[in-house]
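Researcher: Let's continue the batch. This sequence belongs to Sugar transferase, and it's 289 residues. Same format as the previous ones, please.
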Amino acid sequence: MRVAVITLVAGRDRHLRLQQRGLAAGSRVPDHYVVVTMDDPAADRPILPPPPAADVVAVPVEGTALPLARARNVGARRALAGGADVLIFLDVDCVPGPRTVDRYARTAVDGMVLSGAVTYLPPPPPAGYVLADLASSAEPHPARPDPADDQVLGGGDPNLFWSLSFALTPATWTRVGGFCEEYEGYGGEDTDFGYACARAGVELGWLGGAPVYHQWHPVSRPPVEHIDDILRNGALFRRRWGMWPMRGWLAEFAAMGLVHHDEATDTWRRHTGRGTSTRGARYRFDGPG
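Model: Same format as before. Here are the structure tokens for Sugar transferase:
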């Protein structure tokens, strides 16, 4: 069985290198490590001596929004061309546990997308994270299942799918059709993929015994710096699936006076009033397409 790990990177070179150290220390080292760079020349340098050596694929960025969905599809195509029997996607911030790759490889079956538990690390000490200490330092996400090491929990909610850590077979990837490349920038493409799985009759499962440890980085809550991406991608999701995603963030933006919802047209629009940084963009649902 040939196992491929796919990750995307745009400016987090240090996080990428710790991820590779985690892969190298695992009980099963991936046969193919595909690193998809998005305007990130630093990632084109050799990362560490093998195993696993990085197979770097560059995806150009047009404009300011990262083509995350397209980059994942490019990485999958590279892995499939290399003969992968199992595709494992890891966010660049995620460091796998010692048995994570092996657990994904042994459990992956046609017709199911598996997601291991993602736990969150505190800010690193001055000398950086220590691999052996990650498990004891991380905290689980309160809104996601955390099955026992020998469990697979099926029937996952497509609204909870996220691309930080998941695995599937090539047949399942083809059945779902990959990620919708119309999404660019932050938000929406993960939930879209979850809905595409449900439409294709592919089950979402939560896999125990396959943890990853998410390295700390600054975040905004709500992510105001991504508001235009969220509105644009949300409108795309509404067109494709008939509903707005990320409603919690939209509600928080509205409470901050940054956006307004027109119930008659199901339109979200940025306010252009004083004190808001905005281009006045308007996004709406114009019917099925």
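Researcher: Any comment?
Model: The longest helix spans residues 227-241.
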